[in-house]
Amino acid sequence: MEQYNAASQSSGVYPLPQLEERGLPNLPSLKLGPSKLGPDQATSRPVVPAKRVARLNEPLSARAAPNSQLQPREPLPYALPTDRGPRPPRGMAPPGRFSGLRVAAARTPSMVQTGGQWLQPTSARGQARATQDGRGPIPTPRSAWPTGSDTLASHFDDLTDFERTEILQYKEVTYFGLGAEKLSTLHSAGEFNHGFDDERGDYNVVMHDHIGYRYEVIGTLGKGSFGQVIKAFDHKKKCEVAIKIIRNKQRFHKQALIEVKVLAHIREHDPHNDKNTVRMLSHFYFRDHICIVFEVLSINLYEFIKNNNFKGVSLQLIRRFAIQLLNTLRFLRKLRILHCDLKPENILLCDPAKSAIRVIDFGSSCMEDEQMYTYIQSRFYRSPEVILGLPYHCSIDMWSLGCILAELYTGYPLFPGENEVEQLACMMEVLGLPPKKMVQDSTRRKLFFDSAGAPRVVTNSKGRKRRPASKDIMSVLKSSDVSFVSFLEGCLRWEVSERFTPEDALQHPWIAGEPSNNTTASTSRASSRATNSRATSSSARDNGRNSNSTPRDINLCATNALTALGPRTASDSGQAYASASTHPNEQVPRGFLAIESKARRAR
């Protein structure tokens, strides 16, 4: 290579085909000389000086030159460390390397190890200059992180027997849980996946152990029928993430693949991440479990309501949430994606002091033409067509949206049925009887109606019977805000063809910011509701909001301090929303944060 660099200083040379035939490397950095057209006027060959041709065709032994005749080369564009720093503490990873290795004092994440030496590539400008100087392009450096075989060689005693084989599959190792109390694996794979799983198929999470030789387990965020969500630290990107670890069962495995497909489709069509959906950062297999990595968010809207003592929130804030959710549903409808489990638990705040939200849990989602289940949605937010066994479309999410906004206003579910029969009875109590055609087309009508088509009268656990059309939405909400009530009525229509689409809802006066002439001050929910009644309703709420047979996620958030954005008061007038800011990152009004400060003092 020294000879090539010396020979390439003269212009007008080009690597000949004979070089490859003689086993010599190509010289892509050499410059093209002046070219002439061949005799057929169709080909062009670079003109190479005769001396150069003779020189290149000489035997290698004849071409060897004394070192004194070689042109001196510039220093290599690498930093070669000459000293080695102290060994870092156990379990800690110094910048750019993994825990436990001795590193040079000036080493950076971009350095690589080659032949026992640490090399740092130059900048892009330095690489371009090196190419122009005739040294050839600098090869792309290998990863700054060690491979599995590197880690095995340097930390053989720190790995379990299972990991010594498993780690060889990984091209990069950024963390391997040095110092963690690792599970003692079994030799038989039939014993609950080598001992990594419990009898339910959930992965046995160990604090500070690794997930995929990259993520460090630092906490648990929740557990559900699908599996569990853990909080982890990404040692490669140096940030916290939430990892959804799917149960090691065929049913959940299959549904998780659909979720990954939906999330990837969403990410592809939302490059700027402005559609208010949770961001899937990556996904991978680890010890027979599908793992999906998400961004970490704050509390969900159910916790938000609960932290506010189930008093409901102002119309200003509800409108901010509604606009973001409608933009999400419009985006999903354009992609023909059904969420199928929209509820307060699956809507998370990005920041506890701001109104920006993200929709999570696409574990029950499907494409409109690839529906897998007939029994979907949590009961309190389940649409009538799903209850009656009718075909369903994206409009089921608009029904759920109406129920969610009503609950944000009152603090309690709009249709709190104890079972599916009472759930439909709750709907009929407020909305009246469904159209006859819906009843006739229902595959489950015998469960809800008698032979004459009349609804069956049911009595709930409190001895209460619900009569059709005995209430209306305005009386249930205890609100005289005509515009808000009109918006909810558009979301909660029996007929799918008459129900609001996201595009229709975004044009409604309550959303578009046009004040209504018939709105009056909203009355707040009675603050003296009996404590025992609240506890009973809360228990029923928990049962109803979790009654979904399909795999579902729980909140991807840490349970932080109380961050309620303010209770609904009598000062919330019908025209207040007209001047309310809808920017999702706007700071919450100061008065709203007083509740948070009070709660923190109470803790």
Keywords:
alpha+beta; 21 helices; disordered C terminus; 6-stranded antiparallel beta sheet; Transferase(Phosphotransferase), domain 1; Phosphorylase Kinase, domain 1; 603 residues
Overview of this structure, please?
This protein has 21 helices and 14 strands. The chain has helices at 2-7, 17-21, 50-57, 60-63, 124-132, 148-154, 161-166, 250-269, 301-307, 315-334, 384-387, 395-410, 420-431, 436-441, 445-448, 473-477, 482-491, 502-506, 509-512, 531-545, 593-602, and strands at 35-37, 44-46, 112-114, 117-119, 210-211, 215-224, 227-234, 239-246, 280-286, 289-294, 337-338, 347-349, 357-359, 366-367. It has a six-stranded antiparallel beta sheet, with helices on one face. A two-stranded antiparallel ribbon has the order 1-2. The protein has a two-stranded antiparallel ribbon with strand order 3-4. A hairpin with a 7-residue loop joins strand 12 and strand 13. It is elongated and about 75 Å long. GO terms for molecular function: ATP binding; protein serine/threonine kinase activity. Residues 215-511 form the Protein kinase domain.
Topology:
Blueprint: H1 2-7, H2 17-21, E1 35-37, E2 44-46, H3 50-57, H4 60-63, E3 112-114, E4 117-119, H5 124-132, H6 148-154, H7 161-166, E5 210-211, E6 215-224, E7 227-234, E8 239-246, H8 250-269, E9 280-286, E10 289-294, H9 301-307, H10 315-334, E11 337-338, E12 347-349, E13 357-359, E14 366-367, H11 384-387, H12 395-410, H13 420-431, H14 436-441, H15 445-448, H16 473-477, H17 482-491, H18 502-506, H19 509-512, H20 531-545, H21 593-602
Antiparallel strand pairs: 1-2, 3-4, 5-6, 6-7, 7-8, 8-10, 9-10, 11-14, 12-13
